[in-house]
Amino acid sequence: MVNTEVLQRKEPYYIPGYTGYCPQHRFKSGENYSNLSHKLLRDPKINHAKKLILVDRSKDHEVVKPTKDDIEVVNSRSNRMDPIYKHPMLSTYDGFIPNLSDERDKPYEIQATEGIANFEKQYQQKKSSIERLEKTVELQSGTSYPKNIEERLLLKSKFRLPLIAVRPEHIGLPEDYLIDERYERPKDYNVSPYFMENINPQKYFIHGYTGYKPHRTTHYGKSHQVMTNYGLRDFTSNYLKKKRIEWAPVLLSNKKEKLPKNNRIFKKDTALMPSYTGHIPGAKFK
Description:
The chain is 31% helix and 0% strand. It is mainly alpha-helical. Helix 3 (68-80) packs across helix 4 (108-141).
């Protein structure tokens, strides 16, 4: 059998595809990337940093890691559902990650793991409350019987389930009493952020959106939500301005206004100019 130590490369080395800085790599050639990077990192004639970039994360006390509970929650979710969100999350993932904040005070891997774990905990909590409510309805309606102490406690609730739906304005009124109800236009939840009103707080792109973001360079340095909100507001304002002024239809008319003809030299309501050298009747007698 071939010794496994012969097949394994010696540490330290950079794997192929590493796009970071490797000292003196541009001046060396003739070997593969792993062997060449190993020699360059071990060469004493080349200036190196005091600490290697690739460190052992399991032994380094300065490395910030996600909590063990969050990792277990994310792994259990990936085993039970479609494993899109799986620990560790790569920083090159451009898709949407729930509960990912705009503040970059932690590494991407930790923020992504915490966001997915919080989302999964909220989902499990909501799911358990719905199952508890459905079980209470079954027990109080008589479709099923309690099997343990916990289910017996559900029978002693303040209200009997299922509740009867009664609107507040119809309480104490007969069924045949007609009430004029004001028509309310249903909300449209499929409106594009481009055409939302500027005062709408939902006028922004969610994290993971890889399409065009208008006026992105103008508001550079702000968080993703604030940057896209300001950019979309500027886009909508410019669009409405051009639609109202530049893109408005122009009506061309061939009709010319006819001015009234007035060939009179001596007018009743205006005087003559001082430079007038023509004849003025009766001027020499005054």
